[in-house]
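re: ur question from earlier - yeah i can do the single chain one, its not a big deal. heres the input i used so u can compare w yours
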Amino acid sequence: MPRTRSDLPATGPVRLGPDSRAALRPAAVGIDTGFWQARRASNAHVSIPQGPALLEAAGNLHNLRLAAGTAAGEFQGAYPFVDTDVYKWLEAAAWQLAQAPDGDLASDGDQAPDDDLAAEVGRIVALVAGAQQPDGYLNTWFQLVKGGERYKDLRWGHELYCAGHLIQAALAHHRATGSGELLDVARKFADHIDSVFGPPGSGKPIDGIDGHPEVETALVELYRETGERRYLDLAAYFVDRYGHGLLGGEAYCQDRVPLREATNVEGHAVRQLYLLAAAADLATETGDAELRTAAERLWHAMTTTKTHLTGGLGAHHEEEDFGDPYELPNERAYCETCAAIASIQWSWRMALLTGEARFSDLIERTLYNGFLAGVSLDGERWLYVNPLQVRDGHTDPGGDQSARRTRWFRCACCPPNVMRLLASLEHYLASSDDNGLQIHQYVSGRYASDLAVIRSETDYPWHGTVALTVEETPAEPWTLSLRIPQWCREFRVRCGQETYEGPVADGWLRLERTWSPGDQVVLELSLEPRLTAADPRVDAVRGCVAIERGPLVYCLEGVDHPGGRLDDIVVDTTRPLAVKHRPDLLGGVTTVVAAGSRRHLPDAGWWPYAPVDESPDSPQQDGEPVELTAVPYYAWANREDGSMRVWLPTS
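and the output i got, formated as tokens:
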């Protein structure tokens, strides 16, 4: 049955306050077919349902029972933040419960999956509530391992970080189900934190911040939900205390320089990005112009100097940090999946705040590449790190930083983080303002604002045609705004008898008119494959190109190239790229075929260096011709372990 405006998801992770200074408001979207529906179905029917068993096996739920006094034994887990795996799963499950069910009953008459999921959510919410201490404090590591010690290790303890994820889970649960059970737990913890932390002269015992920002953006959202200004003020206090040496002045935990003065992102990538998401939230709710300027400055610096082609972020395995400007390695790229998620969350807040399409351009790139690569096509295996190259003969260390997909991790932050983003994805696709509806990401389904409902049909990203049909509209004129992606060289829009090829302002093509039900707009984006080169200051890929098509970054995998030796591959940039759709491959993908060769490597003896005129890169050296088959980067590592590369040498 078609979904109407009333049953589209009406709220998500960001619900703007009544006095928000945002240029745009999140709009309701329903995804019913196509690329993202398939990925979300895997999340809904495989990833999320497996969560409780995985959390049980890892000991997370056992720890909650220990803290509640309903079980005996030892704390399980290596980190003080293992509670957040539970909270992120709860958030994912809550957003999933907000979706329209696929059917009332399973074919065998058993309860529908949503009924089973709701029961699991209720069970785990009760475990969380039972573990909370009377004054609101909740952290199983410190309650069980540290003998009740509190806030003595703010740099590494993650107590406020855990509180932030609890608050976000509680808000999702409340918005999705109407239940206040988990929200009561979260508010009690937030009230406890507010009674403990504050600036000098506030009369509160601790002037401090958490080594891992996260609670700040959660507190802003708690303010939006409750109207309690003190939560907003507490978030502002935390954000402004970073960079003043409270954690030793380390860049790793954003304490080297105040955010308002920073000129580039630095330190631990996820920590930096969560802090910047909070800054965007605060600028949105308070109108703080200085904070907005800082967020825009840092976003620009990040995208121009520290972002991989896939949208991935983080150059260093050591300390999971950004690295220096233009330090963007391939096989040692860290690009943590959680960093991709944090980037999307920050960019969406910036898109709402400013109304600028560039932020959604980065969201699209990250969604289709750096983020989606983090979960296997079957929804059962994960990547914590997302390298852009795996060499021939790679020896994998295993563990959390493996380049091979893994069932679960010792530090399992990424899997439930992926789950919660996929389950709330419709929240990041469209917006509205007083003048109309803006479509940021193209999916098959319905977009709805207070003004109108638009039906969308598309096979994007495999095909570039997006057909939009007006289903509900007022009699007065309004503006439909379509984001023209930054990568798009040619496009055309047909609206009735009119054709538009511009103008595009700030990434938007705006169509203002009096609409009628049944009016159709057809957007055609050229998806010609292209070769992309990096800024010449990126030493790691100088002399290389990458293959892209539409929003997708492509890669070569050893499994598609008999004879292997991907490290010896050279692409011929003078030959055209060809497109071939392969419904039999990787769930159905469009591949890009290129001409290339394998370098002829003469016997170099015992020393691998040679004069320039004798090196394998010299023009007189011929190679073995080979047809190169490139697959979407998000789908790599779904068949067999082996070599992979995104950037291809040209000589």
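The chain is about 35% helix and 15% strand. not sure if urs matches, ping me
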